[in-house]
Specification:
The complex is a heterodimer of chains A (about 350) and B (about 575). In chain A, about 35% of the residues lie in helices and about 20% in strands. Chain A has about 350 residues and is of the alpha+beta class. In chain A, strand 1 and strand 2 form a beta hairpin. A two-stranded antiparallel sheet of chain B has the order 1-2. The termini of chain B are close together. Classes of the chains: A alpha+beta (about 350), B mainly alpha (about 575). Bound molecules: copper (II) ion (2 copies).
Chain lengths: ~350, ~575
């Protein structure tokens, strides 16, 4: 009897539609059923106890309301041990079921299967970088549908946390160690990806997208051509910005356009302004740099000076500590995170600022 | 229980003698008579004013935060200001308000009287605890004025060791406040053990005192860990000692273990005293002997001890090992039981009672409703697989506000209204008191219920900007916060009006049976002008209403009509 009751309580297939009070956004990963089922189960336990407690409370308030200050005291017990034991033990059974359901799903979440597609994640104030096995890196997470994907995450500075609500996954990104997360997406489409561990000023702007690509290009799918590509096709496309349709002007690659986009997606905008105003705790503003590049002026360093040219900019991006400017802190290196055409595009963009 | 009471000689035959000497408010006057007072009642009053001021400050921060969240983008303040506001809102509310509120203000005032004694065991230490609180508050304000604080009240490393704000001043403030808390706790433990009136056996101690006693145990055992943790944080920042920062070979997750080792038990420092108040209120205003006295008393102690074993449930997604998360999840469910036991016993107390809807009871009923929601939603967070998506979202924010604000603050308000006539000797306007409770209740739910939905839909906490799809729920929550602010303002106005215009309070306006109601309102300097004797604190049936004084008197005749057990 009890075992049938327990399986009944734990079997989500048997839950009729009207009784599904799960409030999560629609699930898009294989974890959905475990999470949503447990949520709904707890929800009903809560509804039951809430109605019981508040129902009795309101009922007593009405039925036993005080009529005169010296109401006759009704005789009633002041304690009842069997009753106490009853209401201690019975809810405990429900708690055991909750724990067991939470446990089963959790072990699955924390055990990546052997055949995972590996993506590296680097979190830093305040942007995400996702690196694919072929070396391509993006600031949005792109994954193939129906494939086990494992994220190996590290942080360059403080704690961050990667959270994709539709995938039901979340894991802190901790400096000084790797943390892992895995999931398998069920449907193509894009969803939010948030940072959920407070990390400073732009914490709430550490939002990006998780894009799930279909197995086959889908011409009738989303309007956005990018979303309709299958994953390998997208990867080829993403690895080469010069073929990116978004960066074309009159059918030709426009490095300034690409640079403007990279400025935002690579996170330069958090520290470098496009005017001559400094961003607090950031790096040098880019308008004066643009001017210097045009005129070939010398730039003052902590020791000596350097002629402003393409090489200086390139070095500043790949090895920022090689030449230190006075009055500024450190810049994180982008070595391995930016390809040559991207650096070219950024340089073109910086140059275009001083009109 | 009634039988062993009637065997205590003299326990029923003592009418409160009329007041001859001046009460504690009038025995002396002038600034230094308060500033250097050793009277637990005056210290309680000073604490009350202090924590209410802190609450007002934290409340203003909250309203600014909610206003900022009206729109998805920038609304009234910058991101930096927002981060400072939510940090200080949390830090002020937790360290300056909730933790000291009930023990410091109400506990100080009532515990010694409830025990039938003249004062706490160490009056000087009690005063020192208050001044440490003031010192801590000064450091907090100094942090606010000198660069602010933007780490969140949790001070997580390595953000807290690298940000440019005044982390050292604030943590030092919290460090000092920890000592204030330890002093209060130590005092209560010794007082309860050694200073009870004759006849006041352990099971005649009112449940509020049991709750304060259990709280004191946690204060004394857990707070030192917070002190050490904060010192390590200061050492890392000031001296570059690598304890938590991986760049220096430290471990940031270690900080979280230390922090929650204190801060989970601290949740019980915050909620146990509130539960104690509720036990008093429900029984008094239902005119019913409390149901299951021993179970409530032991569940307080049980919570205090179990509370030490569950800190890791704040870290299911922190990178701690999955095996550890599993153990902590299992232990976490064990703390659900004692809280549930209390709720059932309170309900059973109301059964067949004579329920008055006086202001304190309105707050107590609001507590029952809100705390039930707060407690039940904890089940979602204790369940591993469900906590993963909910962790660090608005679901958690809603959950702990239901427990901390819907629980502790509401009980605190109920307690203030309950003991107000005793503390000030003045009655307040009952109607407006009730109105305040209803507005607070409605405003509270409108503020925080939408946050459960927000969190489940994926809204992370500590976000200055957010994606537009969350806006309507945020607007609801903000409107709720304004309503809540209005309700609390009305409550304050009722109290201030009472101070100025309130009519004189009788000794026992509510018909309560605990000892603080068996003395004059307000009490004399040494609390009683006769030798009090411990008796069943819940023999409410022995109290008889007397219209001529608009209050209750003890009628020994009624003792014989003791209700069945
Ligand atoms: Cu972040
Ligand atoms: Cu906890």
């Amino acid at each position: 009897m009890t075992t049938t009751l327990l399986t009944l309580l734990a079997n989500d297939e048997l839950v009729p539609k009207w009784a599904n009070w799960n409030m999560f956004p629609e699930s898009n990963s294989t974890f959905g059923p475990a999470v949503d089922g447990a949520f709904n189960f707890i929800m009903w336990v809560c509804i039951f106890f809430f109605v019981l407690v508040c129902g009795l409370m309101v009922y007593f308030m009405v039925v036993y309301r005080r009529r005169t200050p010296n109401d006759k005291m009704m005789s009633s017990p002041t304690h009842n041990t069997p009753l106490e034991i009853f209401w201690t033990v019975v809810p405990s059974f429900l708690l055991v079921i909750m724990f067991a359901r939470g446990f089963a799903g959790f072990v699955d979440m924390r055990t990546p299967p052997a055949d995972c597609y590996d993506i590296k994640v680097i979190a830093k104030k305040w942007s995400w970088t996702f690196q694919y096995p072929d070396g391509t890196s993006t600031n949005e997470l792109h994954v193939p549908v129906d494939t086990n994907v494992r994220l190996t995450m590290r942080s360059d500075d403080v704690l961050h946390s990667l959270y994709i609500p539709t995938m039901r996954v979340k894991m802190d990104v901790v400096p000084g160690r790797y943390t892992y997360l895995w999931f398998k997406a069920l449907k193509p489409g894009q969803q939010h990806l948030f940072c959920t561990e407070y990390c400073g000023r732009e914490h709430s702007m550490m939002i990006t997208k998780c894009v799930v690509h279909p197995t086959q290009p889908d011409p009738n799918g989303n309007e956005d051509a990018l979303l309709n590509m299958d994953f390998p096709q997208w990867l080829v496309y993403a690895s080469d910005i010069t073929r990116n349709k978004n960066f074309m002007t009159d059918g030709k690659f426009d490095p300034v356009k690409a640079g403007a986009e990279l400025y935002k997606t690579k996170g330069c905008s958090a520290c470098h302004s496009l005017t001559d105003q400094r961003i607090a705790n950031g790096g040098p503003p880019w308008l004066p740099l643009s001017h210097a590049l045009k005129t070939g002026e010398e730039i003052q360093l902590q020791d000596g000076s350097v002629k402003a040219d393409d090489n200086y900019v390139r070095e500043s991006i790949l090895a920022p500590n090689a030449k230190r400017r006075t009055g500024y802190g450190n810049m994180p290196s982008y070595q391995g995170q930016m390809k040559d055409p991207e650096i070219d595009a950024i340089i073109a963009f910086i140059k275009s600022l001083d009109k | 229980m009634a039988t062993d009471i009637s065997t205590t000689p003299g326990s029923h035959t003592q009418p409160v003698p009329p007041q001859t000497e001046p009460d504690y408010l009038h025995v002396s006057s002038g600034f230094s008579s308060w500033a250097f007072t050793l009277d637990h009642k005056r210290i309680g009053i000073m604490y009350l004013i202090g924590v209410m001021a802190a609450f007002a400050l934290g409340g203003v921060f909250a309203l600014i935060l909610r206003t900022e969240l009206l729109t998805p983008g920038p609304t009234i303040i910058s991101a930096d200001w927002y981060n400072q506001m939510f940090t200080l809102h949390g830090a002020v509310m937790v360290f300056l308000f909730i933790i000291p509120s009930i023990p410091g203000a109400l506990g100080n005032f009532v515990v010694p009287i409830m025990l039938g004694t003249k004062d706490v065991a160490f009056p000087q230490m009690n005063l020192a605890s208050f001044y440490l609180w003031v010192g801590g508050a000064i450091f907090f304000v100094a942090a606010l004025l000198t660069g602010g604080l933007d780490t969140g009240w949790t001070f997580y490393t390595p953000y807290s060791t690298t940000t440019s704000t005044s982390v050292i001043a604030a943590t030092f403030g919290a460090f000092i406040l920890g000592f204030s808390s330890i002093f209060t706790g130590l005092n209560f433990i010794v007082t309860v053990h050694t200073m009870r009136a004759p006849g006041m056996s352990w099971f005649r101690i009112p449940l509020f005192v049991w709750a304060i006693y259990a709280t004191a145990i946690i204060q004394v055992l857990a707070t030192p860990v917070l002190g050490i943790t904060l010192l390590m944080l200061i050492a890392e920042r000031a001296l570059g000692l690598g304890i938590f920062d991986p760049k220096m070979g430290g471990d940031p997750v270690l900080f979280q273990h230390f922090f929650w080792f204190y801060s989970h038990p601290a949740v019980y420092i915050m909620i146990l005293p509130a539960m104690g108040i509720i036990s008093e209120l429900i029984s008094t205003y239902s005119r019913r002997h409390i149901f299951g006295y021993r179970f409530i008393a032991f569940s307080s102690v049980g919570l205090a001890l179990l509370g030490f074993l569950v800190w890791g449930h704040h870290m299911f997604t922190s990178g701690q090992s999955p095996a550890m998360s599993v153990i902590f999840s299992a232990l976490t469910f064990s703390v659900a039981i004692p809280s549930a036991v209390k709720v059932f016993n309170w309900l059973a107390t109301m059964y067949r009672g004579s329920i008055s809807l006086a202001t304190p009871m309105c707050y107590a009923l609001a507590f029952l409703f809100l705390f039930t929601i707060g407690g039940l939603t904890g089940l979602f967070l204790g369940t591993l697989v469900v906590d993963v998506p909910l962790h660090d979202t608005y679901f958690v924010v809603a959950h702990f506000h239901y427990v901390m604000m819907g629980g502790t603050l509401i009980a605190f308000l109920g307690g203030i209204f309950h003991w107000w006539p005793k503390m000030t000797g003045k009655m307040y306007n009952e109607f407006w008191g009730q109105v305040s409770s209803v507005i607070v209740f409605l405003g509270f739910n409108l503020t925080f219920f939408p946050q459960f939905i927000l969190g489940t839909r994926g809204m992370p906490r500590r976000y200055y900007n957010y994606v537009p799809e969350f806006q309507s729920l945020h607007v609801m929550s903000t409107v709720g916060a304004y309503v809540l602010g209005l309700g609390l303002t009305i409550a304050l106005a009722v109290l201030i009006h009472s101070l100025m215009r309130g009519k004189k309070a009788p000794n026992n306006p509510w018909g309560a049976a605990t000892l603080e109601w068996q003395t004059t309102s307000p009490p004399p300097l040494y609390n009683f002008n006769y030798e009090p004797v411990g008796r069943d604190p819940y023999a409410l049936h022995e109290m008889e209403y007397d219209a001529s004084i608009d209050g209750y008197k003890h009628n020994p005749e009624l003792a014989k009509l003791a209700p069945a057990h």
